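Annex B. Sample input.
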Amino acid sequence: MDTDIKMSVKATDTKAQYDNKAKQLIGHKIILAHILVNTVEEFKGMNPADVVQYIEGEPHIGSVPIDGGVTNVEKQEKVIGLNTENSEINEGMIRFDIIFYVRMQDGLSQIIVNVEAQKAEPSSYDILNRAIFYVSRMISSQKGRDFVKSNYNDIKRVYSIWICMNMDEHSMSHIHLTRDDIIGSHNWKGDINLLNIVLVGLAEDLPEKTEKYELHRLLGALLSSKLNVDEKLDIIGNEFRIPLESDIRKDVSEMCNLSQGIEERGVEKGLAEAAIRMYKKGYSIEQISDILAMDIERVKDIVNNN
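Annex B, continued. Sample output.
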């Protein structure tokens, strides 16, 4: 197999593992509780540890957890990705990163929350358009499950929360329905708060821990490719008082290892491309080896496969 193809396959596999690990890490209930406290009005000002109890682990929408064999998610201490495929005739398929039910403090009503993690703001489409599609699907998929026939008053509020990394600045926006009275002021009945989109932008730099940037610092630390395991655990455990259970430690450690692997493969690919360019310009194998500090056999392998 061509060396570049080998590296591409390895890099793709590592990135896929990294993405899955990031979802698992965010999917810990205590992390989701921190997200809820900072994005859902009813939970603002609460201690995230007290919000954990309101997250219902049982997948109600035909969800299958990433980890096979987990049949009673309600008893788990984390919602494991809830990688859900929702399909309907003529509607195609959606795969939610994380989706779960939350019981409100009144003990009766529920909301449905979806959390999506993005490495950056997509360039091939507008992220808000995708988010609107997601909340629309979260509403329409409730028919026959959360409400039947014409009982539209039983529709549950939905939140689609998008975490975008590598942004130019730290940001957060809440996008929802609004009402403009054009003629008269008739009181049209209904819940204008059914649809909610929250876009969270994370810059590369880690902000100071202030009330304003509390969520950004936590998520930034969790998803950072620059911090090592100990630095991440120090922020999570000491600053945010999150119990460092063995599964959280494991997820953080594995994510850091995968991040390092992605970086190392990026360096390896850059060296390979440099070696090929130098060879095409007439440099000898020995010269390339000396300049790039690479083993001669490695240089030969790169040149011969390209």
